[in-house]
Design brief:
With 70 residues, the protein is α+β, with helices and mostly antiparallel strands. It is built from two helices and three strands.
């Protein structure tokens, strides 16, 4: 469908901080990506049916990761 997903540097940092723990290491990275990005993006794609060329952006605002589009 020619749809792009862009992660801001702040979003990458926020996701990394949340996903990596001293106890579990990086095991929770996949879970965090599924919860914060994949599930939200899937619901958005099903609900909005974006046009070809849509760019979704993942950004961090005050430590919260958010999905936007343009």
């Amino acid at each position: 469908k020619n749809i792009k997903l862009v992660l801001s540097p702040a979003a990458k940092s926020a996701l990394a901080k949340e996903a990596i723990s001293k106890r579990e290491g990086a095991r929770s990275v996949r879970r965090i990506i599924e919860e914060r990005i994949e599930s939200v993006l899937a619901r958005t794609l099903l609900k909005n049916k974006p046009k070809p060329g849509t760019v979704f952006t993942i950004r961090s605002i005050k430590g919260s990761v958010e999905l936007g589009s343009r």
